Automatic annotation (TrEMBL):
This is AAA family ATPase. Pfam families: AAA_33 (PF13671). It comes from Paenibacillus cucumis. InterPro entries: P-loop_NTPase. It comes from the Bacteria.
Length: 196
């Protein structure tokens, strides 16, 4: 029996991880879960109640009030799909989580699964340089990016590529360079590494 896939799309803001995840989801009819979308109604309510900017997704206040809730909501939805045998694509930075070696095994254990019976893979999407991140973040003109751009010196360290500490086979962790203006280049590499 084929294992259901749980694919994480990681990377800095503006790297194109969401766009690539949507393209892969569309082609393979996999569940698509974006943490920003799942958390948005709760984050806006929480930030507003605290008298803070409801569009903020990066400040220390946002992280203190909303970050962990977002990951819990996202992973509960992801694990529910995995339990149903549905390939599931999850988009989010997962910076703290990917640095914790046993985090993924603990999450799978919540539904009686393990790495032996779930095909967990990681697509870490990145760009060649900081200027390209800034250019793409600016171009998308999202209110969710205002804090990033206004606090670039504080934000820029989040763009550094991180090592994934989970005990996965090396070939299941793909670092995908999405710097080209032609998204088909990154998608071809992504598809090969995640599905072939």
């Amino acid at each position: 029996m084929r294992k259901s896939k749980l694919i994480f799309f990681l990377g800095g803001a503006g790297s194109g991880k969401t766009t690539l995840a949507k393209a892969l989801s569309r082609k393979y009819k996999a569940a698509f879960l974006d943490m920003d979308i799942l958390l948005r109604p709760a984050a806006e309510a929480i930030m507003t109640l605290q008298g803070l900017d409801p569009s903020d997704r990066d400040s220390p206040e946002y992280k203190r009030l909303c970050r962990d809730l977002g990951y819990r909501i996202t992973m509960d939805a992801a694990l529910d799909n995995v339990q149903l045998g549905v390939d599931t694509l999850v988009v989010g930075p997962f910076t703290k989580e990917t640095g914790t070696p046993d985090w993924i095994e603990q999450e799978l254990a919540r539904i009686g699964r393990s790495l032996d019976n779930t095909d967990v893979r990681v697509a870490y999407v990145y760009l060649q340089n900081e200027a390209l991140y800034r250019q793409r973040i600016t171009a998308r003109q999202s209110p969710l990016d205002e804090w990033k751009l206004a606090n670039w010196d504080a934000f820029r360290s989040s763009l550094d590529r991180k090592r994934v500490a989970w005990p996965l086979p090396a070939e299941y962790i793909a670092y995908i360079d999405n710097s080209s203006d032609d998204p088909a280049i990154a998608f071809a590499e992504l598809e090969r590494r995640m599905y072939e």
